[in-house]
Every structure is written in structure tokens, then in C-alpha cells.
Amino acid sequence: TIEKTLSIVKPDAVDRNLIGAIYQRFENADLKIVAAKMIHMNAEKAQGFYAEHEGKPFFADLVEFMTSGPVMVQVLEGESSITRYRELMGKTNPEDAACGTIRSDFALSLRHNSVHGSDSPESAAREVAYFFADDEIFPRS
Ligand code: CMP
Which residues are catalytically annotated? Predict the structure, then answer.
């Protein structure tokens, strides 16, 4: 099934000029970028995005980091894109991420882990809609 998933290139990666290198990984994996923009989130926007983590011990640090600089947000479309993108990213903690994954190659730490991806069809639908209106998404096949 062709799916859409929400991707974020986080502040640590934008700051280190890794946008192009990470976009290349998406395209090499046949994940099509069908929507994209650069934004700098405020606390309210980041808290809303990560609402499921509210109350966890790392929540404040997560919001502080995600508002520390601009990010690239994009919608990736492709066959089984949700799980395939998660495989491409590797495990959340770069120390656990397999060789050749985005986080293994670029991430600095569990917090500064370079990329985010939706973890299920339900969160993909919510997260895509959180950042993009329907007329900002350009599906292709
Ligand atoms: P992400 O996929 O964006 O979803 C939530 C983020 O919280 C996750 O990537 C990590 O960067 C961060 N995170 C998860 N667990 C922890 C933790 N134990 N300590 C600090 N940050 C965490």
C-alpha cells in the first residue's frame, strides 16, 4: 500500500548542513518528498506535536531542543513508507541504530537524533495534518 509519513529533519542536522544528505537517503530509498517546508517551532507547536510524550521525564528537554532552531518538515510517500522510513532512520538512540541508517551515520545522541518519523498509520495521519494542509501536499506515482 502506498502510504504517507511525516518526517522531520531536526535542529542538530539542519545546523550541521545535513539537509541534502538526509533528503538523498529518502530519494535513494524511493520515498518521494511530496510536501516540505522549513519552520522554527515555538513551544506551543512542539508541545502539541509531542503531546503523547507529555509528562515523561525527557519532555521538557525534547521541547527545548525542537524549538532551538529551524527544522525541515516533509511528507514522504511510497510503498509501506511508514515502516520503511523507520528502518531507514534506525533506532531512536543512535548507539542502538544499525550501521548505514540515518541515525547511525548522523545522530549525536538520543536527544540530538537528527530525524523524526511517524510510528504508525494513526500517528502519520495526525502528524501530516499537524503541519500540512491538503493543498500543500502533492502526491505522485
Ligand atoms: P522522536 O522520534 O522525535 O520522538 C520523541 C523523541 O524524544 C525521540 O525522537 C528522542 O529524540 C527523544 N527521546 C526519547 N526518549 C528519550 C529519553 N529517554 N531521553 C531524552 N530524549 C528522549
Answer: 116
Q: Report residues whose beta carbon is within 6 angstroms of any ligand 1 atom.
A: 53, 58, 61-62, 92, 110-111, 113, 116
Q: 94 alpha carbon to ligand 1 midpoint, in Å?
A: 11
CB count, 10 Å around CB of 33? 16
Q: Is 10 annotated as a binding residue?
A: yes
Does residue 92 have a known ligand-binding role? Answer: yes
Condensed to tens digits (0 to 9), the pLDDT of residues 42-85 reads 999 999 999 999 999 999 999 999 999 999 999 999 999 999 99
ipTM for the complex shown: 0.91
Distance 17 CA to ligand 1 centre (A): 22
Centre a 10 Å sphere on the Cβ of residue 122 and count the other Cβ atoms it contains.
9
Burial class of residue 1 in the structure, from the number of CB atoms within 10 Å of its CB (0-12 exposed, 13-18 middle, 19+ buried):
exposed
